[in-house]
């Protein structure tokens, strides 16, 4: 049932309509590593605006003519602007949406939300999705999207973005097992492929827990190990420690099974290019090295340059095999790089939350 007038509606959903999130949005000049999330940011944004238009149109038609338009800050004659020209700042703002998009598309986490901020963060967008899914509102969605020319192939990106963002956050927090459907969503594959992995051999085998009634769960550590082997999965990189002047002082790299086996620490070239000095980078060839930087690893200091492995990946040229063996490193563990000065960095091993502490 709708509130009796638009003021009550505004009060009911005030946190969503008035929330303003100040985001630090990273801008990179090089190509970033991408997941298989196929929607463009522009398509997701248009789909979000279509949901807002649907809500406003429903209020105009069912509650009070002009109330929905006024809520959106639009003309009451319904000569509403194209989706791309709608101002999102009074609602969620483009910053929040771009942050979620980079989280899903590139695995770049730019903000952690505390419980008291959730109503003004991603959860507020889920509220909008739920509101428009209500039967009295959903019936107007096609009418609005046809009226404002939202192509059929651009519908659904907003919901898919939220599903992936929530599933990725659930995985990153590593507080509970994942379902096979969640694992398929993160890996960018269908459920049948995940099912088949339960019967594979060797490292490709997915170890599951039987929940009952044909349902299976995957422990967080096993999910992380298995996902690192999937080409479509992009591990999360925590950017919340980046300084506001666009200079990173801390960077973390997630260890993969292959990296541990070969003694390498791989990281996104986009992050590395603004974390290490430009002259520290060398090519894959051993005779084309960069100028070394110093890595402080526990009680020793080791000089190394940074090897460019591809357009998207870089790695210190030195190997860390002995360190990984001593610490019993597992896929999903991290190495934290902290800049002490321009050419000196401290390395710290960070055990994944689901792994037992290494003695």
Helical fraction equals 25-40%
Q: Whole-Å distance between the termini?
A: 59 Å
Q: Count the DSSP helices.
A: 15
Mean pLDDT across residues: 80
Notable characteristics:
single chain, about 350 residues, alpha+beta, Arc Repressor Mutant, subunit A, At1g16640 B3 domain, 3 domains, five-stranded mixed β-sheet
Walk me through the structure:
- The chain is of the alpha+beta class and 359 residues long.
- It folds into three domains: 6-168, no CATH class; 174-227, Orthogonal Bundle (Arc Repressor Mutant, subunit A), CATH 1.10.10; 241-350, Beta Barrel (At1g16640 B3 domain), CATH 2.40.330.10.
- Helices cover 38% and strands 15% of the residues.
- The chain has helices spanning 6-12, 14-18, 41-62, 67-72, 93-106, 122-133, 135-138, 141-147, 157-173, 180-187, 191-197, 220-227, 257-262, 269-275, 321-327; strands spanning 108-109, 178-179, 209-212, 215-218, 237-238, 250-254, 267-268, 281-282, 293-297, 300-304, 306-308, 313-316, 334-341, 344-350.
- α3 crosses α6 and α3 (41-62) packs across α8.
- The longest helix is centred in the first third of the chain and has 22 residues, at 41-62.
- The termini are far apart.
In short:
This protein is of the alpha+beta class. The protein has helices at residues 6-12, 14-18, 41-62, 67-72, 93-106, 122-133, 135-138, 141-147, 157-173, 180-187, 191-197, 220-227, 257-262, 269-275, 321-327; strands spanning 108-109, 178-179, 209-212, 215-218, 237-238, 250-254, 267-268, 281-282, 293-297, 300-304, 306-308, 313-316, 334-341, 344-350.
């Amino acid at each position: 049932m709708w509130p009796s007038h638009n003021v009550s509606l505004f009060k009911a959903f005030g946190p969503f309509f008035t929330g303003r999130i100040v985001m630090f949005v990273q801008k990179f000049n090089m190509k970033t590593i991408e997941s298989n999330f196929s929607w463009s940011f522009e398509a997701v944004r248009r789909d979000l605006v279509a949901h807002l238009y649907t809500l406003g149109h429903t209020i105009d038609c069912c509650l009070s003519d002009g109330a929905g338009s006024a809520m959106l800050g639009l003309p009451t004659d319904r000569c509403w602007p194209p989706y791309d020209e709608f101002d999102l700042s009074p609602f969620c703002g483009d910053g929040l949406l771009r942050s979620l998009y980079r989280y899903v598309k590139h695995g770049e986490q730019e903000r952690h939300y505390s419980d008291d901020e959730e109503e003004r963060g991603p959860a507020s967008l889920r509220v909008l999705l739920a509101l428009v899914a209500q039967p009295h509102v959903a019936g107007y969605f096609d009418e609005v999207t046809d009226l404002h020319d939202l192509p059929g192939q651009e519908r659904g990106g907003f919901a898919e973005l939220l599903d992936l963002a929530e599933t990725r956050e659930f995985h990153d927090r590593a507080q509970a097992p994942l379902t096979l459907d969640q694992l398929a969503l993160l890996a960018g594959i269908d459920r049948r492929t995940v099912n088949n992995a339960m019967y594979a051999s060797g490292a490709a085998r997915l170890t599951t827990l039987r929940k009952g009634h044909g349902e299976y769960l995957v422990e967080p550590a096993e999910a992380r190990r298995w996902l690192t082997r999937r080409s479509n999965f992009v591990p999360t990189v925590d950017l919340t420690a980046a300084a506001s002047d666009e200079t990173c002082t801390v960077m973390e790299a997630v260890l993969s099974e292959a990296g541990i086996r070969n003694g390498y620490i791989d990281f996104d070239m986009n992050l590395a290019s603004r974390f290490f000095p430009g002259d520290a980078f060398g090519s894959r060839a051993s005779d084309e090295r960069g100028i070394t930087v110093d890595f402080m690893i526990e009680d020793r200091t080791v000089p190394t340059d940074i090897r460019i492995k591809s357009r998207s990946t870089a790695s210190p040229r030195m190997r860390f095999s002995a360190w990984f063996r001593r610490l019993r490193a597992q896929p999903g563990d991290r190495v934290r790089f902290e800049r002490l000065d321009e050419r000196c960095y401290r390395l710290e091993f960070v055990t994944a939350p689901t792994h037992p502490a290494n003695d």
